[in-house]
Amino acid sequence: MAQIRFRSAVSPLRRGTTGFRRNAPAVRKQITCVDNLIETMRPADPVHCLRPAVLSATAARFVASFPGDVLYAVKCNPEPAVMRALYEGGIRHFDAASPAEVRLVRQMFPNAEIHYMHPVKSPGAIHQAYFDYGVRDFSLDSAEELEKLLEQTENAGDLGLFIRLALPKGPAVYDLSGKFGAAVTDAADLLRAARAVSPKIGICFHVGSQCLDPSAYERAMDLAGAVIAQAGVEIDVLDVGGGFPVSYPGVTPPPLDDFMAAIARGFAKLALPARTRLWCEPGRALVAPGVSLVVQVIKRRGHELFINDGVYGSLSDAGVPAFRFPARMIRPTQAAASEAPEQGFAFYGPTCDSADHMAGPFMLPADIRAGDWIELGQLGAYGSCLRTAFNGFDNARLIDVTDRPLLETPGYLEAEDHPERCAEEAQSVGYITERAA
Ligand SMILES: *Cc1c(COP(=O)(O)O)cnc(C)c1O
């Protein structure tokens, strides 16, 4: 009989030091529905429920819609099972931004193209990426970095050099305009300098994460046009970065095709030579719907719930950035199901820090109580990768499920629901647990 083993949800980039959990509980039969898993496992640790089919379908939809190459931004979720699902959905390019990410992608996908799109790299990281992992594409936003790239690659003649353009503060939820990027005149100088030493050059930018306004891409492309005009050189690639949004409670972005249309318009307006390629680097949009997090309520205090994960775990974005996530209560079937109306709750995480607070509000049945579980959706992006071991709370688990996402984002294929199959599964499993050897 098939067995389920929880895998660790600790970032694979850290697993080398933390190791895998021993004695993970296993169950007698393959269980693939979240409710059945919780019923069976009664997990006291947070559980990440991975939806490989959703991840693959989301990637496939994005790849089919974007008029160019789609690079997955690895930092968003470097979990190997996530990356495999994206690969199955057609992702062949990866935007890596650290030596550990470069190594991970190369180990998993020997033939994938890795693009090192971090504009500020240590000399050793460049040397290793170029000579040990076959990376050829690098981004930069200063003359210093260009010098460093040439020195560390021993003046390689086959570099792809991407000038990161600074953008004015935009409408995105996460503004990324402050840290990186060259202003137009500097970018034009850099573009010329890059053209002189490289057969492949481009411009890249990032409009900010969870960008709800398609026209932000067009404006950024206009600015790229100004750089190209001022530099007086041709580019080979225009990389419009990440930032593509997903739904959250109360936030429904414009459909994906509106973004694609805006990008196509912006690209056409630049009237670049026909051979010019278009790239993008989505993170959030590819993975957010593909993972949910199941937490348990430890204590209720009025409208506040103390739960077993928090801002030092996978719920970092629910803290200061105050993201709200779709929530639903899971109460094992032996207890009476709730008919209570929903109300808003705030969360406290498990650590002793009072900053471990998530304002929400998260909508849940009014009678929720200690011992109930909560499934939080849209946590595939910037969730488990931000976990820390602060205060000793680092025992999160990972398991594959077949449920649909808690929220759909307009323009992506709607996943199918299958309540009958889950009911059947619950019956066949009989909720017997055992300990793995
Ligand atoms: C983080 C990042 C991305 C991904 O951004 P999303 O908003 O998650 O799509 C893409 N490119 C670069 C350079 C990044 O730093």
TrEMBL record:
One of its GO terms (molecular function) is ornithine decarboxylase activity. Coiled coil: none annotated. Keywords: Lyase, Pyridoxal phosphate. The active site is at 352 (proton donor). Residues 60-288 form the Orn/DAP/Arg decarboxylase 2 N-terminal domain. Its EC number is 4.1.1.17. Its cofactor is pyridoxal 5'-phosphate. Pathway: Amine and polyamine biosynthesis; putrescine biosynthesis via L-ornithine pathway; putrescine from L-ornithine: step 1/1. The modification N6-(pyridoxal phosphate)lysine is found at residue 75. One of its GO terms (cellular component) is cytoplasm. It catalyses: L-ornithine + H(+) = putrescine + CO2. CDD domains: PLPDE_III_ODC (cd00622). Residues 291-376 form the Orn/DAP/Arg decarboxylase 2 C-terminal domain. Belongs to the Orn/Lys/Arg decarboxylase class-II family. This is ornithine decarboxylase. It comes from Skermanella aerolata.
